[in-house]
Amino acid sequence: MSDQEPLQQPIPRRQFLAGASLAGFAAFLAACGTQGTQSQPPTAGPPATSGPPATTGPTAAPTPPPSPSAELNFANWTFYLDPDPEDETKFTTLEDFRAEFGTQVNYQEVIDDNDSFMGTIQPQLQAGQDTGWDIIVVTDWMAARIIRLGWAEQMDLGNMPNVTANLQDAYKGVSWDSTDDHHVPWQSGMTGLGFDRESTGDLTSVRELFDLKYRGQIDYLTEMRDTIGLTMLHLGADPAAATRADCDAAIAEITRVQNEGMNANFRGNAYARDLTRGDVVLSMAWSGDMVAALPDNPNLGFAVPSEGGMLWTDNCIIPKGAQNKYTAELMIDYVYRPEVAARIAAYVNYITPVKGAAEILIASDPEMANNPLIFPPEDVLARLHIFVGLSEDDEAYFDEQFATVLGL
Questions:
Q1: Smallest Cα–Cα separation from 144: which of 178, 94, 190, 172?
Q2: What pLDDT does 159 receive?
Q3: Which of 30, 66, 171, 394 has its CA 20 to 30 A from that of 388?
Q4: If pLDDT is split at 50, 70 and 90, which confidence band does 363 have?
């Protein structure tokens, strides 16, 4: 299939996913350890809020907030927002935001991986210039780097009452943003195996990623922590306690199979397109992407390997110098309304960080409690690893070693 040939999509993606509901998940998640298992619905948090908290008694007149900007520039990954079921060139959340605030959101799915996207805006950040984006979504380790370098705006939490009220406790007080005012979690997800079940059958082990029978038909990820992390699990090491020696061993294993003819491609978000087109039959994969790709290839499957997978969080950042900072705060706060977060989660199939969203999802569709991509059961959570926080020197070392297998 040529790069110009469009994917066949007989029905809209949203309609396919809604029609499929949870019925096909037992097959799709064949190796996720969830067949016949129902996870417990999450514990409800404090009462959800979709607006500023109520006040009692006389108060000083607040300073009038600025007006929302006419436009907002928002950079995100693919398959990460709910499309309008009537027009897939639009997004329901953004259309509703425009109706309420009058802002046209210039939303572009331009992030393929963290490093390549940062390469497009780093010169402006270093020069103290506007990047052209008001909101970007990057993974936790990149968010930490941006904040450490002083390239993120401090958010005014007074403009973000939903974030303050509805951020799940587990996400609060991270070491790289202890005041929780330079980033806001967007979604969390898992990294495991994505495969074409018609070609591979159901896969259960990370060792499949190093089996030469898939030579020339496999993608690895350009995200260092995912590829190195899964390789460490293959070698029996724990990515949550990774050392330089573990990194060296993982690089040696990747180099070995490449030298023996694996010919793995290193891809960002484009791996999902490779799988749907049949260009590869196996890939390191992000959980929600695989569900979003099902309309293009119903044979796809996803598994958290028996040896384990990776757990990560993508975060909203307002880049330093953003022209529409106040409106960016409004937009981020808007998606922390539980009813909005629930709608987004139902489409993207990632783990939502918003209190109250789970209850809305389950009330609207009780089978959603069985969705292990949004509500991973305990046996899956027990197999997930968060990559160790690296010092600046160690991060440079890991990145340099990984660059050798990327051919950089």
A1: 178
A2: 97
A3: 30
A4: very high
Q: What is the distance, to the nearest Å, from the Cα of residue 205 to the centroid of all Cα atoms in its chain?
A: 23
Comparing 15-29, 106-120, 137-151, the range with the smallest average pLDDT is 15-29
Class level of CATH domain 191-311+384-406: alpha beta
Q: Name the one residue in this structure whose structure tokens are 């802002």.
A: 103
Among residues 342, 351, 389, the alpha carbon closest in space to that of 371 is found at 351
Nearest Cα to Cα of residue 292 among 77, 64, 68: 77
Please tell me the distance from the alpha carbon of residue 250 to that of residue 35, in angstroms, as a whole number: 32
Residue 219 tokens, joined: 């993608």
CA distance 63 to 333: 19
Task: Please list, residue by residue across 3-38, b when 16 or more beta carbons sit within 10 angstroms of its beta carbon and e when fewer do.
Answer: eeeeeeeeebbbebbeeeeeeebeebbbbbbbeeee
User: Which DSSP category does 373 fall into?
Assistant: T
Question: 291-334 pLDDT, tens per residue?
Answer: 888 889 999 999 999 999 999 999 999 999 999 999 999 999 99
CATH pick for 71-188+312-376 out of 3.30.70.1230, 1.10.3720.10, 3.40.190.10, 3.90.79.10: 3.40.190.10
The radius of gyration of the chain from alpha carbons, rounded to an integer in Å, stands at: 21
Give the residue extent of every domain in the chain. 71-188+312-376, 191-311+384-406
Helix, strand, or coil (residue 280)? coil
The reply to whether 191-311+384-406 shares the fold of 71-188+312-376 is yes
- What's this model's pTM, rounded to 2 decimal places? 0.83
Q: Is the distance from CB of 155 to CB of 329 less than 8 angstroms?
A: yes
